[in-house]
Design brief:
Length: 272
């Protein structure tokens, strides 16, 4: 027998439908074939689940009477034999396995195949569901990137329109010896709405940020903080206090990231 022949007998073994000779042959093969042992375990688990779904059937009273009659006849025959002792031992006659019904066998195998097919389809559905979830997450990520790009484009458009709007004031900030390559432009309107664009700034150390200041005479008023990108470019939007909208000087220092009320670092850029 080849390996495929043994594999074909596994479903019948799980249903206890093999002939004695076939059962012995398969048992010997299972001792040396881990693949078939694993497959048999799967079929036996499936067959067991199907068995739990059926209703148990009790033997008929006629079967019981037939068994008792056969046992009594055997006992009387044993007492008539001279070579046996006075206390005859009843012999239990094993039941002969009922002939297998081909249609029942096919139906059982079909039921198991249906369960296996259902499980396979269930696995496919789960896989498709996961793929769908992953696709939805990717689409949501792309949409978020598109919206972010649109928002950035709108912000850039608003900033460009503000920077070029007639009547707005423009002030240049030049770098000090501490930041000789730095330069900044501050644009603000009569309402105090201000935009700062800076370039050539050194990287801010960890926990540090650049802070804008408004000087009225020698008195500083704190503005917002910002952090430049890797190219040294940075920007911020701020609201100038009323006292700084007519006559003020501007400066930028390096301060703690959260900002401070009075400058503690050296002035890196100034307007005057």
């Amino acid at each position: 027998m080849v390996h495929e022949d043994y594999k074909e007998m596994i479903p019948a073994r799980a249903l206890s439908a093999l002939e004695a000779a076939e059962n012995r042959a398969l048992t010997e093969h299972l001792e040396v074939c881990p693949e078939c042992r694993n497959e048999l375990e799967v079929w036996e688990e499936t067959a067991a689940s199907l068995a739990l779904a059926t209703h148990p059937q009790e033997p008929s009273p006629q079967l019981r009477d037939s068994i008792l009659i056969e046992i009594q006849t055997e006992l009387r025959g044993n007492r008539d034999k001279k070579h046996q002792t006075a206390s005859a031992v009843a012999q239990v006659v094993p039941f002969r396995p009922a002939p297998r019904n081909a249609w029942t066998y096919i139906g059982s195998v079909g039921a198991i195949a249906a369960v296996v097919l259902f499980l396979a389809l269930g696995g496919s559905v789960v896989m498709l569901w996961r793929q769908n979830r992953a696709t939805q997450a990717e689409v949501a990520k792309l949409l978020a990137q598109v919206r972010s790009s649109e928002q950035q484009t709108a912000q850039d458009h608003d900033m460009m329109q503000f920077l070029t709007e007639p009547g707005n004031k423009l002030t240049n900030l030049v770098g000090t010896p501490a930041a000789p390559n730095a330069h900044a432009v501050l644009v603000y309107d009569e309402s105090g709405r201000a935009v700062l664009l800076a370039s050539g700034l050194p990287d801010a150390p960890a926990g540090k940020a650049y802070q804008l200041w408004y000087f009225i005479g020698t008195k500083p008023f704190p503005g917002k903080t910002f952090t430049p990108d890797r190219s040294g470019n940075g920007s911020l939007r701020d609201q100038l206090p009323a006292v700084a909208r007519k006559d003020a000087n501007f400066a930028i220092t390096l301060e703690p990231e959260a900002g401070v009320e009075f400058p503690t670092g050296a002035i890196l850029l100034h307007s005057g």
